[in-house]
Design a protein that fits this description.
single chain; alpha/beta; Neutral Protease, domain 2; two-stranded antiparallel sheet; 12 helices; about 10% strand; binds zinc ion
Length: about 375
Amino acid sequence: MKKHYKKLLATILSAGVIASTISATFVSSASATFVSSASAACDVKVEMVQNAYVIHLFKNNMLAVYLPKVGTTKNGRYFNQFESTYYNNVKKAGNYFKSLGFVYENYSALLYYPDKTERTPYTPDTVFISYTYDDGSDKSNKAGHNYVGNLKGDAISEFGMITIGPVDNNTMNELAYVPDVLAHEYAHLITQQIAGWDRNVRSSSIEAGAIVEAYSDILGEFSEETPDWKMGTAAYKNNSNKNKCFRNIKNPQSTVTPNIYRKYYTNYTEFKNAAASSPYYSNDIAYGGSTVLSHAAYLMTQAGLDKDLVAKFWLDSLSFIDDTKPLTMSECRKAVVKAVNKYADETNSSARGRSALISRVNSSFNLVNVY
Ligand SMILES: [Zn+2]
């Protein structure tokens, strides 16, 4: 991971043009031209494939995972409306992250051969996407895995692939039609690539789980041209007032998610107390704590920072996370501040400009009690 990290860092540091684009955006506080700077000619690569749900031994752990099946890429010519929307939304997310300076280098995808037992590590420049039905069939071309219901109303992304599950069509829209959720999933691939945040890191502590989910919410929500600061409003039918969502990062305590009752935090100490009171890893507390960080990111935009610049700070901070230490929100704060300094260096910021940026970032962390 370390080796890869350095290589990637070098790639990002060489992308000076991007920093100056954001600099202009920051000064004018207008982001309209920023996102469109990624031209169609250098779109990120996305392929729709069939998936296989496999359980095997990986790095001494039993791993149950969705993997792309070799040779099942579906040609865009044959996409239906669902598939083309899914594909275009993932591509749009990827192009946004590329515009922030992210270079996709998938070093950890595994390929699955349907008729064999072995898996082959693969290093494509492509994000694979797939869909799974409740009954185990695959919506992209009607032949999937045999694991029933695992992803009902949910999505997963790792090993270079995003897989979305079916939803209750009475109350929800397919996740293929929910751009911020797909961007959230894409961001999991980014944090896995740059910082090595795989499922083991995510479950290493409730705080680590909260952080991994927060970064995906931040990058996912900030990928919207005009963020509504709520994750997944498009997932719900009869939601024109945008009341229902997965997480409200502007007002986390006001989150309304049908069938999910969970406390969301905007104060690090309260979250830590809740985490400490749980004898086991708790996904509920992890998601509940994720809003400590995602709310801090929201607050940075309210402190006058352009949202794409804030997104870049969080993205770049992934390269500055000290992975010799336990993953904590305090370490994330240090890493974000390092990313701000890097930006100030690259843009030849004045001392006054630099301290203005840093004080806005610091005060946002202060407000959620992360020091
Ligand atoms: Zn997630």
